[in-house]
Automatic annotation (TrEMBL):
PANTHER family hit by this protein: RIGHT ORIGIN-BINDING PROTEIN (PTHR47504:SF5)
Domain called HTH araC/xylS-type: residue spans: 8-106
Top-rank taxon: Bacteria
Molecular-function annotations in GO: DNA-binding transcription factor activity; sequence-specific DNA binding
Pfam families reported in the protein's UniProt record: Cass2 (PF14526), HTH_18 (PF12833)
Keywords: DNA-binding, Transcription, Transcription regulation
Keyword DNA damage among UniProt keywords: no
Name recorded for this polypeptide: AraC family transcriptional regulator
KW Transcription (keyword) present: yes
Amino acid sequence: MEWLKNLGAAIDYIEENLDQEVSCGEAARIAGCSPSYFQRIFSYISGVSLAKYIQRRRMTQAAFELQRTDSRILDIALKYGYSSPSSFTRAFQSVHGITPMSAKKAGCTLRAYPPIHFSVEITAGSGLSYRVEEKESFRIVGLRTPLTESMDENMRNIPRFWKETREKKGLAAVMALSSRPPEEILGVSVYRGQGDFYYYIAVSSDLPAPAGMYAYTVPAAEWVVFENNGFFKEDVQRVFRRFLQEFLPFSGYEYAGLPDVEVYPALHKPSVQGCSQVWIAVKRGK
């Protein structure tokens, strides 16, 4: 439950600073995690990226002020961090569908996005099957693509990366790096600091990385392993969401901040569903 309280405190910080600079690093510090992890859990739990949430909240407050005060559009734009009326207008239209000038008129339709509140939802849902395993470090070799701090963007780019890799015969090249016929292929999200965030399509291998490919050693850790049988993309996202909402708050574990690993069958023909696993590294809570 302390984890949920920390998330709530991070949201309080964001709400108190909508008319100032909101620091993702400070929000993450309050939540007790790294900036990349905070953005990831925020996106999975809320269904929207942190940047989009902040924009929606600022434009919600801006719309209220446009309608109930005589403040100039430029003054409201500056208050919420926009240096020009044009940039403010673009942001406002992306949320409300109309211009700030139109929003001053009576009878116009606007959208209000309330603050997010994190809470425990009591449901009669299915149980969450998992096992905890200790795994030695292992080396992966394969292709990689850069990720961004926007989880919305990453959720679009990763499936595109898989599709392009398969279409360009890159998947077969990766699978050939395994020292034995591979039974599985890995999707690994690796964050090592600001601007150093990658997603790998790889296999476990001790071979040197060929030109255009990369090697990485996943540290030894204790892992929560979730088994899935369904659509790959939807199930991976569902597992992370349930891990954050249903497992982490009550398990006595903490997120270890190590790479997240997706395990897929080494299929030679395209497939969007089947049996897969998600590994999430954890550590014992204090």
